[in-house]
Fold this sequence. Notes:
This protein is an alpha/beta fold. The protein is 44% helix and 15% strand. It has 16 helices and 15 strands.
Amino acid sequence: MGVLDILQAKKTGLPEHYRQLSELEMVSRIQAIKEQLGAQLYLPGHHYQKDEIIQFADDTGDSLKLAQLSAENEKAEYIVFCGVHFMAETADILSSDNQIVVLPDMRAGCSMADMADIHQTEKAWEMLQGTFGDTIIPLTYVNSTASIKSFVGKNGGATVTSSNAKAMVEWALTKKERILFLPDQHLGRNTAYDLGVPLEQMAVWDPISNILECDGPIEEVRVILWKGHCSVHEKFTMENIKQVRKEMPDVTVLVHPECTFDVVQASDINGSTKKIIDTIENAPAGSSWAIGTEMNLVNRLIQTHPDKNIVSLNPNMCPCLTMNRIDLPHLLWALDSIVEGEVINQIKVDKETADLAKIALERMLNKSI
């Protein structure tokens, strides 16, 4: 790829000639570049990536684990993050200044993260403080933008993952009377309920109408949930559970806590991506499972555990569309740009935002179990 191609690509996206390459040629070229760059290159791949990408991953994991592994890999000059935008931001925040983080396709975003922007959040914070005073601490799911993590760090809060959400919500409730939980209402609701907070003591902040929606007395609200959701996990329904139990009477329903409250309550087990993977790995041969999470991961579990009967809880579910932006042409393009010395799609978080976001991340890492 020449310099002119790179300059044109920065304006228009993937150069057209990459779309003309065969899969075999792209695989061969990616392997060759990985060998050429060696320890200079680190390529983390999120669990939800397609198999065509996972085959090249140096490590697989959830977003935070991969960001931490990126930061620990001090030899790597280039971190080509195969995930979505907020994950690459977290990798940049935690890695050293001399490391370059690249996202193969800048269109690989996250609809959940985009449901809470900094302007909405600052306005909500001002209005909620007007209602409740200085009684609120913010928590944000790591599935959020760097600016939201920065806001949370600035205001005494922390990040959470689906694995440690309970520990972090417990911690937050020792600091203030109330929590503002961003940006996924379902993880916040499911976690708080598991800790004994009744639904009547939860409210939902609608950032579009700037209205606090609650069923109980407003003065008794303990958890304020941002009106956001995962567009994948919200598509698992009670009808899906009824159908799979009818078709597979011995099935165990295993879902992610980003699913809706009723689906989580009707499931047998709920937990993070890691918990889902570990549960299936430790399950006995011949057991039956309906899994409510992203389809690429479910298909990979089906392939790697042929001794178990595994299905998707929603058989019509599509893979995460933004995760699937990362494909062989974009990965090859990103790697070619590194070899050519004209890096494309670098993710760089400004220092002020990164410093405050890192505070929120470190509070979690220091306090969570």
